[in-house]
Design brief:
The chain is an alpha+beta fold. It contains 16 helices and 25 strands. Among the domains are: about 240 residues, Roll (Pnp Oxidase, Chain A); about 110 residues, UbiD C-terminal domain-like. About 5% of the residues have low confidence.
Length: about 525
């Protein structure tokens, strides 16, 4: 059953014994981060990896405030958040949608109707504002004050407090026919600058940054001017090529142009999770959330923006980004385990804050893995495997190890069918949406369990001739990659750890792997309880 809002989710965590309430006074400046970091790294025999969710009920400096952290910080809670017994259940549902059985009769066609009707029921539903809990308190003008929110400073060298678990809502420009553009819900950290403005960490390859560039294209006087503006804005670097001298009229027009933005903090877990998924650009995250919840997301129109926002969120921030305004953001202790250093990013100006009575602020802390985001990343890996297989059907399984921080290492097993097959798969992954950021790809044969890192290490170390089996290529890299030669651009490595064929120039005999005979294994299985070996 879908959780209506964050409060139903917290109640479910409590019932499941997955919530710890902290009543001692704890500061949002570093202290909450340290507690959440320690909790995320806990292990015990009963709970396994990942400590409990944390509800801070006594926030120093913010009387009456409550802060939820580590809500997704274990495999158990990820499954509870999405109401499944296994994350692979969602992958199975996706496969059914992608590959429905071919109807061979009128009756079989009728049997497909419930599935089509189910998909139609996932589209978001817009409520009247009187039914929206997020409108219980409405603050505008001088009443807008971000310092009243218990925003965390998570690491000592951070540039300030950061909103770390926001659902940032934007919309693409209207199309040529005047139809509304696609809505986007993404998760981008937001450094709080003052009472009514924040940074907006739109890495240049993200969907929201592309929507900003679409508006720049529409605002610039000519295509060459748009190219210069896009190089200078939307995050990553403030330096622009000097190929075009913008006239003052163009600059004035662009500085006055704005892009509406809304931010939801504290939504139901499926909606929050949908903001991080690498969805195809054509699919709205609200629809993904509906699919995960098996129930549509309820929305309401903003007070000062035309965007629709989650109706039952704890907080909604409304405002705008000026198209040509940048400000220094950072440093920020990131999920790579290193600080992301200062750079220039767009500025979000807050015009209105709406919230529920006695709102609950949702936050996360990122840093050296394993942390809460590692479990969110593992859920993305399992759920979206069918989408990768739609493009690359030879893929058997994928592993994104937590220490590889999502974009640094991907291990892939394939059904190898021809010479060079592993390299074809590497190229396909690098051409696939957010997977383009993957710094290292290891490809192994289908009989290798990619979730077993010992087995992967054994195969990789034994199966490669480094000069022959390692390839390098240049391309876009994640903005957070501090080792790349240039911001957002660097090299990637692919390792072909599959068995080598004669068609690939390998003329020696490839040895079989050691394995005990099945008959002996069955006999010892029967004997084992009697042997008293512990």
């Amino acid at each position: 059953m879908a959780y209506k809002d964050l409060r139903e989710w917290i109640a479910a965590l409590d019932r499941a014994g997955e919530l710890t309430r902290i009543t001692q006074p704890i500061s949002p400046y570093l202290e909450m981060s340290e507690i959440a970091d320690r909790a995320a790294k806990l292990k015990d025999a009963k709970r396994g990896a990942g400590g409990p969710a944390l509800l801070f009920e006594n926030v120093a400096g913010h009387p009456g405030a409550r802060v939820l952290m580590n809500q997704f910080g274990s495999e158990r809670r990820m499954k509870l958040a999405l109401n499944v017994d296994s994350l692979d259940q969602i992958a199975s549902r996706i496969r059914t949608l992608l590959h429905p059985p071919t109807p061979t009769s009128f009756l079989s066609k009728l049997k497909l109707l419930p599935t089509l009707a189910e998909v139609g029921s996932f589209f978001p539903r817009v409520l009247d504002r009187s039914a929206a809990a997020c409108k219980e308190v409405i603050l505008k003008g001088e009443d807008v004050d971000l310092s009243k929110l218990p925003v965390l400073t998570t690491w000592p060298q951070d540039g300030g407090p950061f909103i770390t678990l926001p659902c940032v809502i934007t919309r693409a420009p209207d199309d040529a026919h005047g139809d509304p553009g696609k809505r986007n819900v993404g998760m981008y950290r937001m450094q709080v600058y003052d009472r009514n403005s924040t940074g907006m960490h739109w890495q240049r390859q993200k969907n929201a940054a592309e929507q900003l560039r679409d508006r720049l294209r529409a605002s610039a006087s000519d295509q060459a001017a748009a190219v210069d503006l896009m190089a200078a804005t939307a995050g990553g670097t403030a330096s622009a090529p000097a190929s075009t001298q913008l006239n003052q009229q163009t600059i004035t027009r662009i500085l006055g142009d704005r892009m509406e933005v809304a931010v939801a903090i504290g939504t139901d877990p499926a909606t929050t999770f949908s903001a991080i998924v690498p969805a195809p650009p054509e699919i709205e995250e609200y629809l993904i959330a509906g699919f995960l919840r098996q129930k549509p997301v309820e929305l309401v129109r903003g007070e000062t923006v035309s965007l629709e926002v989650p109706a039952h969120a704890e907080y909604i921030l409304e405002g705008f980004v000026s198209l040509a305004e940048l400000k220094t953001e950072g440093p920020f202790g990131d999920h790579t385990g290193f600080y992301t250093m200062q750079d220039d990013y767009p500025v979000f100006h807050v015009t209105c804050i709406t919230h529920r009575r006695k709102p609950i602020y949702a936050a996360t802390v990122v840093g050296k893995p394993p942390m809460e985001d590692a479990w969110m990343g593992k859920a993305v890996e399992r759920i979206f495997l069918p989408l990768m297989q739609l493009t690359l059907p030879e893929i058997v399984d994928v592993n994104l190890p937590a220490a590889g921080v999502f974009h640094n290492l991907m291990i892939v097993s394939i059904r190898k069918s021809y010479a060079g097959h592993a390299r074809k798969v590497m190229s396909g992954i690098w051409a696939m949406g957010q997977a383009m950021f993957t710094k290292c790809i290891i490809v192994v044969d289908e009989d290798c369990d990619v979730q077993d890192l010992n087995e992967v290490t054994l195969r990789t170390a034994n199966n490669i001739d480094p000069e022959r089996d390692i390839q390098f290529t240049l391309g876009p890299v994640d903005t957070l990659d501090h080792a790349s030669r240039l911001p957002n651009f660097g090299s990637k490595m692919g390792i072909d750890a599959t068995r080598k064929w004669a068609a690939e120039g390998f003329t020696r005999q490839w040895p079989p792997m050691i394995a005990m005979s099945p008959e002996v294994k069955r006999k010892v299985d029967q004997l084992w309880p009697k042997l008293n070996i512990k």
